[in-house]
Write a structure and sequence with these properties.
Length: 341
Amino acid sequence: MDQSIDKSNLRQVILETPEQFKDGFVLGSAIQVEGVFDTVMFSGMGGSALPADLLRTYLDDITMRFPETVPITILQNRMYGLPPRRPGKTLHFVCSYSGNTEETLETLAALFESGATVIGVSSGGKLATVCTERGIPHIKLPIPNPTFQPRMGTGYFLGAFLQVLMNQGMLPDIREEIMAAATRYGEKRLEIEEKGKKLALWLAKTTPIVYSGESYKSVALVWKIKLNENAKTPAFYNVFPELNHNEMVGWTLPQGRFSALFLRDLADHPRNQKRFAITADLLREKGVAVEIIDLEGQSVFEKMFASIMLGDFTSYYLALEYSQDPTPVDMVEKFKGMLVD
């Protein structure tokens, strides 16, 4: 690690992420609300919204493996206030790591006025204060260090969400399988780090494009965001098979230097496997570098988070390659300052 660049030691934060799930289960252990729900809506922005994207992927897997589990509809709200359509039997999580995200605070106020069942999730801030004043259950997230960024706290969120859903009887007890998966990929963290170093060098001075199958689109999104926020570089993502019906045509005339990362699940539909291979060949014909990365792990959960750790390290070492401190998001902070009335 180059501490002259990585002033907040983000490398150590990445190394410790597999332990977050256990802490998340503890954070959610005391939270239970009255009511029967078939839908869960997550309201949040940025790094506080990512965990819900990943939760949907994991819940699809749980529903397939546990036929007795009633499928849960997951809705996401990334806007001010409330979306116009809201099912009646909905449990709402309002999430802001800082507790001060303006879009999310407006949503919380609207939900309270509507009489909806709400759980607040934050490390403190105005959101925690409002929850205390109005008697809304609140999950208090940790701040492991003074410069900790929400995008690195996914395990805390996800563990807490899953524990609450288990408390509500909406999910079977899946804590042991999660902890086993976290242990398995955690034991490979140094190996994953080395892969990330190599990928960072391969990506340097190009614009990264991340493609995955539809089932893992949430993972591709996280890769894209970590490349944006850690490496301070544009990055984009899309999914198979949809991209073959539109975006692929854009590679007819690439307008810059691109590198494409294909996140492939070997358990995906055979026709998608063929799409990965053919698309890679077509992009290479256009001078685009392509790297196919097979998702590794014994379960959907392990594949998701082992890949995310690889994305973390790839974006981390790409930041060092660009002499950028990977932790702060100065442009976001500048924007917030300019947004103030």
